[in-house]
Specification:
This protein has 66 residues and is an all-alpha fold. Helix content is 68%, strand content 0%. The chain has a single domain (3-64), classed as lambda repressor-like DNA-binding domains (434 Repressor (Amino-terminal Domain), Orthogonal Bundle), CATH 1.10.260. α2 crosses α3 (28-35).
């Protein structure tokens, strides 16, 4: 996972970790661990992130499949 690209996409859209965590229905601490790459995102969470952040297919591949 490319944590820098994920964080960059989140920040570029003006979202805090807390806001994204709320949308994923997880704690901010859990989101932080996921964004840092310590815990993997599940498919549901990735789908929500794609929608919230407006990620392209290429961005999804670059962020989650590297």
């Amino acid at each position: 996972m490319d944590i820098q690209k994920l964080k960059g996409a989140r920040v570029a859209k003006g979202f805090t970790q807390e806001t994204i965590a709320e949308k994923l229905d997880i704690s901010t601490k859990t989101y932080n661990r996921k964004e840092l790459g310590f815990v993997e995102f599940n498919r549901r969470e990735i789908a929500i992130l794609v929608d919230i952040l407006g990620l392209t297919q290429d961005e999804v591949s670059e962020i989650f499949l590297t």
